[in-house]
Amino acid sequence: xxxxxxxxxxxxxxxxxxxxxxxxxxxxxxxxxxxxxxxxxxxxxxxxxxxxxxxxxxxxxxxxxxxxxxxxxxxxxxxxxxxxxxxxxxxxxxxxxxxxxxxxxxxxxxxxxxxxxxxxxxxxxxxxxxxxxxxxxxxxxxxxxxxxxxxxxxxxxxxxxxxxxxxxxxxxxxxxxxxxxxxxxxxxxxxxxxxxxxxxxxxxxxxxxxxxx
Length: 213
Hints:
With about 210 residues, the chain is an alpha+beta fold.
């Protein structure tokens, strides 16, 4: 090979990374996670069961409605640029799935989602597994008295009972300390919004926990 040809080949090879960087998407590190204690609906169907062969009728129905991929992507029930505008971005009946078709199975109105028993009025620490950690505000709601799990979950069903700013994860798990609402009984949904802080990101995550007081 002549010197001129070698120089041309080197120049071509050197240009390839520049071309690839122009056409390939850039990966952006986002916060991701979901409640492991008590298990969210995604955690339950992914880790406590098997999305390929779910044990519970609710997880089987969720897979039938939206497929298995939602449970392999258990940590990204999110909206990228919501910036606090949750109610305008997520319609009634789609809270648990963040208004995304991919997670439509999480919205099924059923009274047989696997549920965790909690004591009303007790101190409790929610454990949230994070695959990426970011500062943010965690706001937790519980369904109103008289909530019917066989009806689609609405914003008007929700009552706030806790808010924590910038908890520090320990070994990849956020510890969200709270005092559970008192006077509750029966089946309810705990709904938590994890809103990242601007200017870092307007991204938010949505966690649905089925509980029995």
